[in-house]
Each structure stands twice: as structure tokens, then as C-alpha cells.
Amino acid sequence: MEAKTGGADGPSNIPIIDLFAGPGGLGEGFSQFRAEAGSRAFGIRLSIEANEAAHKTLLLRSFYRKFDNNIPEKYYDYIRGDIDREELFERYKENADAAQKEAWLTTLGETEHSIVRDRIAEALGSDNRDWVLIGGPPCQAYSLAGRSRMMAEHRKKQAGDEKDDAKIALDAKSAFDSDHRHYLYLEYLRIIADHEPAIFVMENVPGLLSSKVKGDSIINKITQDLRKPINALKPSERPKKRRAKALEYRLYGLSGSSNSDLFGDGSTLDLRSLIVRAEEHGVPQARHRVLIIGVRSDLQGRPNPLDPSPHRVSVSDAIADLPELRSAQSRTVDTAESWALQVASVQQQVWFKAIQPDVKARMRDASRRILEALDNDTLFPIYSNDAPKDINGLSDFMKWCRDSEMSFTCNHHSRSHMKSDLWRYLFAASFAQAMGTSPKIMDFPKDLWPNHANAEKAAKKHNAMFADRFRVQLKGNPSKTIVSHISQDGHYYIHYDPAQCRSLTVREAARLQSFPDNYFFEGNRSQQYSQVGNAVPPLLAYRVAKAVYKFLATALPSRS
After folding, report:
1. 503, burial (CB in 10 Å: exposed 0-12, middle 13-18, buried 19+)
2. Angle at CA of residue 151, ends 149 and 155, nearest 5°
3. pLDDT tens, residue by residue, 83-112
4. Which end of the chain is less congested by CB atoms within 10 angstroms, N or C?
């Protein structure tokens, strides 16, 4: 199948500028939404990302969109690994050039703002009023885990100094308060002030609602600034346009049924409306995010809250059709036989006898399956380029993910695990099958505890975070939040099938984030995991795009 070249985002699309775009999850959802006539309702004019690997993914997806529904076979050859990127882009140079113009690798806040202003103005062209700004500043400084990690890292750096614990803690807090990522939203404000979008969508982590800097609430500061962005800027940073002096926005959340803005009574924030729960909107993941919608004050009305999906999508709903894999082994020669024998040898361990009968039975069953597959030369590989299994009557979620042109799976390569972790994963997945819940560290046989002081503390319930160090993503539930830490290890993302004895692959994590199967993640595997963990679920973004479009169709009838 040969493709026509040329951009799919024409002048009739509502323009989108995507900031802090990552691999493009938020933009993907907006791009996928179609107007009544079937054409794309939104067109990304510019997406900005600072991370090179994420930008490479973003650029490839921009290239993909330039073909609209007529994707060339060469694209599939590339993501299958049969041709290189240079050959693909050279073959469709017009589309590659358009993608290069759209996906911009730069660091906001470090790049001179006049360059950013001019690049956005060029991208918008004459559509410089009726457009949408999307994105959110990096969230590490706002997330609860991120705050704890930043403080801990600083304490660790200071541990060798001759300071008492109180002084080290004070220095750590000072380092946290001065972190530049708290203020990246100021670049967001400058862009709003310069270009006055009709509406903006700002996304962040729930920790934003409780975060404080120097004792002051971050969310109060951010929302006050977003309402009147000109006032938040230094006089030298304010645009010269006269109309900008009166620029104001009403702010809304997308949860609940209230028609008032966040300051419904004129002073009090309605924070409840800001939290959107992805699992309530068709995403197979319990991912909760803050979404702030800003509507320019000259426009009437507001986007309606999101309607919950009637069905919850579970982990198995999302990934059961993907090819089965075994884990690879690290720190040893890895063969199918050595892996299978290592896993099955669990039954010869002294501690195995003391495991609960139901859990033991499932561990034995998984060992039997593994050895039978080894004998029949059908043991799972560690990487699969095979197509997902056929499933009759595909669900709406599968229709969203699957691509009928793909006879293979990409980004589906298992991690390597230490021998000791193979038994831990086997036990954990078997325990989850038997008990319907993921085990805590105190549920593991003591011989399977990591050689770590926190294991003992966790068993005594002094360290609740470490108690969850090994977590199975339960088959019948939405997964826990996929976060960027998945790039470090897979302990928190164990596959529910004991016989596979591994953590989730990039593709499985991407499915739980609702990325389509033809969405290819560039970079090494750790970089791919980080991109997936940091992204906005495209399916959730699609629901947001629908609400924004319905509002704009009324507020800006000339664009509908």
C-alpha cells in the first residue's frame, strides 16, 4: 500500500500548541478526535519537548500523522526494524520536513523567550486567537514521591558533611524550594500572555494540590496567576499589546457537575473538580491527574465535565492478547533451559514447604507449564515480533489500540532479572492468583526478602513504601499508576501470569497507558519506559479533546 504525501492538519483544524510534550500522549488524544464530518478536529501546529529520546518519538508520531489514514508500508517496516529512520524519512521527505517543523527540540525557560514567541506565532499564522494550548510543566517537583526522592537525594549528598540531621534536613528543604521546576509554569504563563489562546489545558500530578514552596501553597499561586497571567509577569516580560492588559481566564475542572469556575464563590478553590481519574474514562490504569481548563473571559460558557465510562478496563483486558514472553536472566548465561530449570527449582527449596497451600499449588502449576513448554520446544521467547492473538468481538479499548495493518508487535521485549527475582516474581504472581491481592513483603518467605535493611523495617510496618516493593498488577483490575520509575526496575510492575515470571514490557506499559500499538517509542529500553511513565494517557486526552471541541463549537461557531 503506497501513501500519498502531504500534511493532514489543514487550516480548518483548530490549532494546538503542545508544551512539555513528552512522547506526545496529550497531543495524540487531541489529534485522534474527529469532527462530525470525519476530519481531524484539532491540528498540532507545534509541539515542544526538551528530552532527546522523547522528542525522537514525538517527531516520528508527527511524521505518522502527516499521512492521515493512508499510512505507508515503509512506516511499518521501520517500526518492525527492517529499515532505518534515515531511509524512511528520505523516502517521504515532504512529510518528514513537515514533522521536523512541527516537533521542536528545545528547553523552555532556557531558550530565549523571544525565539519561543516567534516560533509559536509562525506556527499559528493567522489563527492567532482561536487556538488551544495544551501541556503541563514537569511534575517531579510536585509529586509526593518526587518530593520525597529529591529530599532524600540531598540528604544523601550531605551525609558526609559534618552537619547534624536538623541542618541537613534544612538544607534539603532549601534545595527543594529553589528547584527550578517549580517555576516552569511561568513559561506557560508567558506563552498565554503573548498569544492569548481561546482555551488552555494544563495537566499535572495530584501532588500539585498539596505542594508548598517556602510555606506557600503552589496551587493557590498557580491558579491566581493563570486567571490573570499578565499580573504574574515582570513588567519587562509583559507583551506590548494593549488588549493583553485585560487578559483574563476562567478556570474549570472536568470532574463533578458544578457549572461554576474554580473560584465559584469568588475566593475558594473547588479542588475536587480538578482530579480526573483515568480508570473512570476507559483507561486500564488507576492514574489520577490534575487537569485545569482555562477559558478566555470573552468566551461564554464552559466545557462540560467528563462523563464516566460505563465499563472499567482491566489489566488482562488490555494486555492478554499480547505474545507471551519469559524474562531474560541477568548475571549469567541466559538460555531457555537454564531459565526454566532455575524457575522450577523453587520446589526443591526448604522454605517452599511452608508456603500457603493455594499459593504453592499455583507455583507448582506454573513450573509444570514451563517445563512442558521446554520439553516441547515451545517455551516463551524473551522478545516477540509476532502479532497479538486474535480476539473475537474486540472491545472498544482494543479497537482503539489495535492496528489491522500490523502483523507484528513492537516494543515488546522482556527485561533481564536476577535469579533471586525469578522466584520472587513467581511467588508474587502465584500469591496474587490465589489471594486476589498483591503480596506485601511480610507475605514473602523470609528467604525471598531482598538483602536490604528496609525489608526488616517494612515487615514490622515501619516502612509502608518498601512493603509494596514487589507488586503484581492484578489481572482483573486496572493497573496501578505507571510512573517513570518503571525505567529503573520492574518490581512494582510484575506480570500477573506466574509462568512468564517477569515484569511488564514497554508495550504492555504502553497499552496500560492507552497508546495505540502503532505508536513506536524511540531510544533505549530505559528511555522508552520513562517516556511511557511520564506521558498523559492518549485515551484520556481524547475524552478531554471531545469536551473542549464541544465547547468551542458553541463558543467559536466559525471553527466547528
Report:
1. buried
2. 115
3. 999 999 999 999 999 999 999 999 998 899
4. N
Give residue 355's domain range: 315-394+415-504
Q: How many domains is the chain partitioned into structurally? A: 3
Do residues 116 and 135 touch, judged by C-beta distance below 8 A? Answer: no
Q: Angle between the 336-344 and 419-435 helix axes, to the nearest 10 degrees?
A: 60
264, part of any domain: yes
Given the C-alpha cell 514525538, which residue does it identify?
58
* Structure confidence by residue, pLDDT tens digits, 151-203: 555 555 555 555 565 665 555 545 544 555 556 778 899 999 999 999 999 99
Q: Are residues 353 and 472 in the same domain?
A: yes
Q: Note the pLDDT tens digit of each residue in 5-41.
A: 444 555 568 999 999 999 999 999 999 999 887 889 9
Considering the domain architecture, whether residues 221 and 348 belong to the same structural domain is answered as no
Residues 19 and 81 in one domain: yes
Question: Any residues with CB less than 8 A from the CB of 515 and at least 6 apart, and which?
Answer: 25, 28, 401, 532, 535, 537, 538
Predicted TM-score (pTM) of the model is: 0.90
Asked if 278 and 540 touch (Cβ cutoff 8 Å), the reply is yes
DSSP state of 482: P
Contact assessment for residue 423 and residue 329, using Cβ atoms and an 8 Å cutoff = no
Going by C-alpha positions, the residue among 373, 409, 400, 375 that lies closest to residue 497 is 373
Instruction: Give the residues across from 44 on adjacent strands.
Output: 16
Q: Are 134 and 188 in contact (CB under 8 A)?
A: no
Give dist(CA 65, CA 61) in Å, integer.
6
